[in-house]
Design goal:
about 280 residues, alpha+beta, Immunoglobulin-like, 20 strands, about 15% helix, about 35% strand
């Protein structure tokens, strides 16, 4: 399994004693060593908003990527909490390599997504909004324009599943609670994907004129996917009115990250199509 959320020692003992078990129950906490977990009956979600997630694939040597930042920041200001954004630095192309001694913002999870969605075959910046499709193809576009129409198509719908997340930084872990409320009956299998992203990272960025801005501030930078990269299965009937929750314990964060600038994002996906059903974001308290 890709992610380990407890010590290797404890997981090893558990594997020996429980065979194929892929989770460790600690009270109401589920410490994941795989992609599946335990869900409980919940109390529902106060905010039933339908939100959209824009995933921007970018690189510090991409001279057009700062233009995408401007356009995405404008959209975030316009839509408020109805739109979330993440900047994904993968290592599939040479121009995502850090410049000089700047921080390396690339992630293996970004590589997985870039290859799956075919992003790396094109040019950067590139983006998806809630992983929607056009015909039989992913709706990949250059996010210097065309953002609004795609976001409107998503947030203009009634939410099928309302979602909220909360996160608390404990001594050696971040405890993340995900709450769901089904606003409509959903017959498809669903997953929840959790990731952590960071704002305010200063790293050199190449600009249009070929110069390097050593003080460029990168926001919404993907740091790690907390669950399996394709999410954890949601145990539910999918009936309208159903309320479920799960608690995740995340220990894989780096001491080099500024957790005061980090956010947790939880998105619900159709397991077979990968389309994002809804998404929520929270600070780490």
């Amino acid at each position: 399994m890709k992610k380990i959320f407890n010590s290797i020692f404890i997981i090893a003992l558990t594997a020996l004693s429980l065979g194929a078990c892929d989770k460790i129950e600690e009270g109401n906490y589920i410490v994941f060593s795989g992609a599946s977990g335990e869900w409980f009956d919940g109390e529902g979600v106060a905010d039933h908003s339908q939100r959209a997630l824009i995933e921007k694939y970018t690189g510090v040597r991409c001279v057009n990527c700062p233009d995408a930042d401007v356009a995405i920041n404008a959209a975030l200001s316009q839509y408020g909490d109805k739109l979330l954004a993440v900047a994904i630095h993968d290592s599939c192309l040479a121009f995502t390599r850090p410049i000089g001694d700047s921080p390396d913002m690339r992630t293996p999870d970004g590589d997985t997504w870039s290859k799956y969605f075919g992003i790396f075959n094109g040019s950067y910046p590139a983006a998806l909004v809630s992983r929607t499709t056009t015909g039989n193809a992913w709706d990949i576009f250059t996010p210097t324009s065309g953002i609004n129409s795609r976001v409107d198509n998503v947030i203009g719908q009634q939410a099928k599943v309302a979602v909220e997340a909360s996160a608390i930084h404990q001594t050696d872990a971040i405890s993340i609670t995900v709450n769901l409320e089904f606003m409509q009956t959903v017959s498809d299998d669903l997953t929840v994907t959790l990731f952590i992203m960071e704002d305010g990272i200063v790293a050199t960025q190449r600009l249009h004129d070929g110069t390097d801005d050593e003080n460029y501030v990168h926001n919404h930078v993907l740091r790690d996917v907390i669950t399996d990269v394709w999410g954890a299965d949601i145990d539910c009937t999918g009936n309208s009115g159903e309320k479920r929750y799960a608690v995740f314990s995340y220990k894989n964060f780096s001491q080099n990250w500024n957790l005061d600038n980090c956010h947790i994002v939880a998105f619900i996906s159709n397991k077979s199509t990968r389309e994002i059903i809804n998404v929520a974001e929270c600070e780490i308290k």
